[in-house]
Amino acid sequence: MPAGSGPTAIHARGVTKTYGHVRAVRGIDLTVAQGETFGFLGPNGAGKSTTIAMLCTLATPTAGHIEIAGHDTRREPHEVRRAIGLVFQETTLDGDLTAAENLRFHADLYDMPTASLPARVDAMLGLVGLTERRGSLVRTFSGGMRRRLEIARGLLHRPRLLFLDEPTIGLDPQTRAHLWTYLSEIRAREDTTIFLTTHYLEEAETCDRIAIIDGGRIVAQGTPAELKSVVGADRIELRTEDDTAAAQALRTRFGLEATAFPGGLRVRAEDGARAVPALCAGLGVLVQEVTVIRPTLDDVFLHHTGRGLRDDAPPRGGDGAGDPR
């Protein structure tokens, strides 16, 4: 759902956070529509965690204004907390309680009505595929199962907005794919806004919109396609029978500067797919292999922050993380 097309889940203007002489966040503006999946990316130390803490009422802005689901975070922090769910990077489940007991404990904290609670617990366990393990101790769960239970817990009180901090770190690719299937179903069924941080390009690509923060400021914001269009030209990789002669021909005949790499030559060109036939015909040497690579979100991240998205990725690790059950 594009921003501005419906109710607003997050509305932040001029938000600043200062710790002593350090300005961690420097006047950010952010709008997220209800029902949107919004990615929040940034290198370590960019102000990402501080911003999320302010959005979740875990920190108070030094200046600026934040509304979450229509509630002011300064004047109505309790209403904001009822409107959000949180799934942290590190697990916060009680391993000595069962799956159902963890959810009921969460319900007590939110003072949820007891009459409707059993049906809601059943619905959430069913949504994340854990009905058959409702009576199992959480310490017996795999990493993937715990993450799914944390998402069920975060959604139990019907929040308008779910914050996910690196939700799939430590999970293998199959488990990550399964988890995103659940999240897509949750978003459709519950009309929940998803606000996530991630270091996985494929997850960032699925977001409706993305904001990149660096140095305490939002340096780029838009859909994945819009952000990639700013980077510009496609990358063409060539392997020829004579890369030296090919590089010279690219410069003199096409005005393109080639960069050598172990697999051959790289050049940048607008609409690489259309440029390839002319390049192959006009180089004067045999082209053995050619690949066109469109700009990626990692290119976008590098363009705006000077480093790649994966450069700051947390370690994967995690006991039992690879088990998708």
Task: Describe the overall structure.
The chain has 325 residues and is α/β, with parallel strands linked by helices. It has two domains: 221 residues, P-loop containing nucleotide triphosphate hydrolases (Rossmann fold, 3-Layer(aba) Sandwich), CATH 3.40.50; 62 residues, ACT domain (Alpha-Beta Plaits, 2-Layer Sandwich), CATH 3.30.70. It contains eleven helices and 14 strands. The strands form three sheets. A six-stranded mixed beta sheet has the order 6-7-8-3-9-10. α3 packs across α4 and α8 crosses α11. The longest helix is centred in the middle third of the chain and has 18 residues. The two termini are 31 Å apart. The N terminus and C terminus are likely disordered.
List the helices and strands and how they pair.
Layout: E1 8-19, E2 22-33, E3 37-41, H1 48-55, E4 63-68, E5 71-72, H2 77-83, E6 84-87, H3 99-109, H4 117-127, H5 143-155, E7 161-165, H6 173-190, E8 193-197, H7 201-205, E9 209-214, E10 217-222, H8 224-231, E11 234-240, H9 243-254, E12 259-261, E13 264-269, H10 272-282, E14 287-293, H11 297-305
Parallel strand pairs: 3-8, 3-9, 6-7, 7-8
Antiparallel strand pairs: 1-2, 1-4, 4-5, 9-10, 11-13, 11-14, 12-13
Helix pairs in contact: 3-4, 5-6, 8-11
